[in-house]
Amino acid sequence: MTCIRPTYFTHIKLGCAPLLLIAMTLMSSVFLSGCSSNEVDETPPVDQEALFAEELQTLVDEKIGTDKLLGASVSIRIDGVEEWSLQGGISSGDTPIAANMRFGIASITKTFVAATVLKLSEEGALSLDDPISLWLTLDTENIDDSITIEQLLGHFTGLHGYFRHPDIWPRVEGDLNTPIPTLELVDYVGTPFFAPGERYEYSNSNYLVLGLIIEAVTGKTVGEVFREKLFGPLQMNSIYFPANENLVGPVATPWRDSNGDGTLQNILAEFGPAYHSIFYTAADVFSTASDLSMWPQHLFNGTLLSEPTKTKMLDFQPIDDTIFTGYGLGIREVTFAGKSHWGHTGGMRGYGSYMFYDPETKVSIAMLNNQSRSQNGPLLRYQLVDELLQAVYQHIEGD
């Protein structure tokens, strides 16, 4: 603190001297007190929000490293507002993961497909009770065309997953630059596990067929419908469907333990037209963490779908799973930090992803990771999301 010394007057009238002396004495006391050792503490107050953000970043950093996650991007929102954006690890070489990087979100794509089908249902363009045969003529005995759209959405069809066919990946890897026509993917659907409606069995083939139905109903590509009904109106400008459109913006490099020896290989060069064509409506959406964390806010906390439609979407059927407790129409139910959450997970070559929403607190989270088939990856992704949400809920309750 700057010390200001008093100024004394030398020309004083005698009659005023006593009063002036008293005044100067008081002034001296005031000014000199500012130079005492008892100065006011001007240390700025602790920024609790900044400290909490550092705490969350530490949780991310602890999951990054050798035999851990290579890179991760996380976005956490409360009631639509992005409160925390967290990144850690690398994309490739010395390039760190950045908030504006797009990742493959894999099966979280199914939430966009389900929302699109439900919107078409609200518009009267189709009915959830429609059988496949009303919209498609499929040249295969392995897809019962009496299966309904609702059964496809909820995985109650018994359809065998087309990614499981032994010939599909050799075809893709044999010509990465040539897309496989979507109708030909149907040929890779194997013998069904059971009759339609019997029970739940997750299968990518269900959402392959839903993509074909969307195109049959609208006369447009799925990418066009996504952009017209979802990406555009909701201003999700970093989300793309590369099966039908160019992927714009920086992309996090995908890595995979292709040989099963614990070593990750850069597989970015493999992501050509063939890859995107087979992932299609089962898994081909790419997004930043920020846009993806906003998606469940629109889906569950907004007006994208009517309340009756959301109720139907969230009618979870119990499933036999070690992590997830139920499946609705394109939506998983899971417990994190003691709370029920709605959303989906995703896993594909080179990427792993989580996107969930808590209806009680209106907290949503998106966690994107750029690796697959690594020994600890799935567990670390789950642990990271659970630990981040636990910290956020404790922080909210502490307020």
From TrEMBL:
Coiled coil: none annotated. SUPFAM superfamilies: beta-lactamase/transpeptidase-like. Keywords: Carboxypeptidase, Hydrolase, Protease. Residues 57-381 form the Beta-lactamase-related domain. Gene3D superfamilies: DD-peptidase/beta-lactamase superfamily. GO terms for molecular function: carboxypeptidase activity. Signal peptide: none annotated. InterPro entries: AmpC-like, Beta-lactam-related, Beta-lactam/transpept-like. This is D-alanyl-D-alanine carboxypeptidase.
